[in-house]
């Protein structure tokens, strides 16, 4: 008769070896992944605020809480003040908005009057060839640039969606609308926030 211990030991050893391997792999790759994420974020900030030569992360807990309240169902992930020389020239608001495939992380640029300067998608899990058109069809994101200061949710919803990608399009539109509310209710009162 075979001892149950003889059956359990190989499984246990395999689990320990696999867990150790995964742990070592994570330890080796985590810094590289973090660096790639940081570089991708820098590129996204520069895309939506091309005239900026630096960005200062908003660290004030009161502003972060107020921004979260203003954004509603859209999560505000981060906010940055765009700087050119020593002069604040606007904002970059990083949000997580729900698309068809889950969260879409967007960065929305706003100038000091609240007009949009650009929108880019940092990450998403939309359906390849369908939902991903919100990024691959350049006209879609470009139409958000130039929304004038004080734009409303209705102004954003009036912009075109991509046929067959309605939920993905709405994810972007909801993110841009949330950034507009964050500016109107929070950032416009911050030094350098309103002209």
Name some characteristics of this structure.
195 residues; alpha+beta; five-stranded antiparallel β-sheet; 6 helices; 5 strands; elongated
Taken from the alpha-carbon principal axes, the silhouette is elongated
Give Rg in angstroms: 22 Å
The number of distinct helices, counting runs of at least 4 residues, comes to 6
* β-sheet strand percentage: 15-25%
Q: Unreliable stretches, pLDDT < 50, 5 or more residues?
A: none
What portion of residues is helical?
40-55%
State the end-to-end distance.
85 Å
What's the order of the H and E elements?
HEHEEEEHHHH
> How many runs of DSSP E, i.e. beta strands?
5
Strand order of the largest sheet: 1-2-3-4-5
Write up this protein.
- This protein has helices at 4-48, 61-71, 133-136, 138-142, 153-157, 166-185, and strands spanning 54-57, 75-84, 87-99, 102-111, 116-123.
- It is an alpha+beta fold and 195 residues long.
- Strands 1-2-3-4-5 form a five-stranded antiparallel sheet, with helices on both faces.
- Helix 2 crosses helix 6 (166-185).
- The protein is elongated.
- It starts with a helix and ends in a 10-residue tail after the last helix.
Q: Helices and strands in order, then pairings?
A:
Elements: H1 4-48, E1 54-57, H2 61-71, E2 75-84, E3 87-99, E4 102-111, E5 116-123, H3 133-136, H4 138-142, H5 153-157, H6 166-185
Antiparallel strand pairs: 1-2, 2-3, 3-4, 4-5
Q: Short summary of the structure?
A:
With 195 residues, the chain is α+β, with helices and mostly antiparallel strands. It has helices at residues 4-48, 61-71, 133-136, 138-142, 153-157, 166-185, and strands at residues 54-57, 75-84, 87-99, 102-111, 116-123. The chain starts with a helix and ends in a 10-residue tail after the last helix.
